[in-house]
Amino acid sequence: MKLNDLLEKNIVRLAPMAGVSNAPFRTICLDNGSGFVTTEEIDSISLVYNKSERTRLITAFSEYENPIAMQLLGCDSESLTESSKILQDLGASIIDINMGCPVPKITKKGKGAALMKDITQTAKLIKSIRNITKIPLTVKIRSGWDENNINAVEFSKMLESEGVDGITVHPRSRAQRYEGNSKWSIIKEVVDSIKIPVTGNGDVKSYDDAKRMIEFTKCKSVMIGRGAIGNPWVFNKSLEELSYEEKELFKKKTIINHLRQIKNYFPKKNLDIQIKKNLSYYAKGFYNSRELRQKIFRSSDPIENVIELFFKLFDRNVEKNKLEKISV
Ligand SMILES: Cc1cc2nc3c(=O)[nH]c(=O)nc-3n(C[C@H](O)[C@H](O)[C@H](O)COP(=O)(O)O)c2cc1C
Q1: Residue range 155-213, pLDDT digits in tens
Q2: Is the confidence metric ipTM above 0.90 for this complex?
Q3: 109/258 Cα distance (integer angstroms)
Q4: Spatial contact of 261 and 238, defined as CB atoms under 8 Å apart
Q5: Is 17 a pocket residue for ligand 1 (Cβ < 6 Å)?
Q6: Which residues are CB-neighbours of 72 under 8 A, at least 6 positions away?
């Protein structure tokens, strides 16, 4: 299938996030209307040479996740081409290459955003991946290495000329990491300078933000990252039509379903930590949320008791909000 057809489905979709965009969360976001999902980054060397339990887990996806983009993190042609083949054989619909990760332990090895530093070298790398990849190939980039080296436009032109099918732009530099605001004007500059579809990303917290980003930049679609954590219904347009009670009931059912997905996916040894982590994300907007999230996270009670506590707090929060609405 062509990338443009895959992008038509929905203007917003879940961003790849290590430790977050795993199969259970991707499933919940799809249930809520996200466009096609992307796996968290998969290290190309680990995938080719080290068939660990973790690699098996992060490359696993269900039939429901169709189409699926699978993201690779790497910097050498040998492991990136070999791992692209492996992912293609596993059933990936799109191969996405991470050229935006700002984490020093990654960039020190020449991976992630470090690939934006040397356009000529990265062009050779992309050529080798393009040669063996039959499915759509996309790349996720930042605005550049640092404020003195903003090269998203030049870099995107190179990617287009090497046959990449689409680009996602998170318009912060590697040096900015997640600080400051993302500069949507850079997404617009990229859109104006290439013909392949551009996905905009950065600081989108709602469907309306996504529409604003598209209007301003003319990008084809939008990825939401942090705005979806503990908030997978950000993709769900129909929620607006529900009453407060209906909305909260919907959220409760979604969380229960997410927990079910987590229990089916993670090995027993990771279960408790995954459940606590996600419940504390969902408790983000609760009254006294800081305290409650710590309570959930640090609890040494059996996990079923922690889940029970969470839903008690959930119900209490709904009641408090209702009372507040009445008194206004
Ligand atoms: C916890 C976390 C993990 C991330 N992991 C990845 C990753 O594996 N691959 C990637 O391309 N970007 C990753 N990102 C970056 C996001 O995909 C996204 O570009 C960034 O968060 C900006 O979008 P947002 O403002 O919607 O969050 C990660 C971000 C966060 C917060």
Answers
A1: 999 999 999 999 999 999 999 999 999 999 999 999 999 999 999 999 999 999 999 99
A2: yes
A3: 35
A4: no
A5: yes
A6: 41, 42, 43, 44, 47, 80, 83, 84, 87, 95, 96, 97, 98
For ligand 1, whether the C-beta of 224 sits within 6 Å is yes
pLDDT tens for each residue of 16-30 = 999 999 999 999 999
Residue ID of nearest Cα to ligand 1 atom 21: 225
CB atoms inside a 10 Å sphere around CB 216: 13
Give the atom of ligand 1 at the shortest distance from the alpha carbon of 203: 25
Q: Give 67's contacts (C-beta < 8 A, 6+ positions apart).
A: 1, 6, 36, 93, 94
Burial of 209 (0-12, 13-18, 19+ CB in 10 A): middle
> How many of the other CB atoms lie within 10 Å of CB of 157?
15
Q: Is 20 in the pocket of ligand 1 (CB under 6 A)?
A: yes
User: Is the omega angle on the peptide bond into residue 104 within 30 degrees of 0, that is, cis?
Assistant: no
Residues labelled as active-site residues? 101
- 143 Cα to the center of ligand 1, angstroms: 14
Query: CA–CA separation, 230 vs 172, rounded Å?
Result: 23
Q: Which two tokens stand for residue 151?
A: 């090269």
* Residue 155 C-beta-side C-alpha neighbours within 13 Å: 28
Are 95 and 63 a contacting pair, CB within 8 Å? no
Give me the pLDDT at residue 258, please.
Answer: 98
Tokens 């965009």 belong to 21
Q: Is 226 in the pocket of ligand 1 (CB under 6 A)?
A: yes
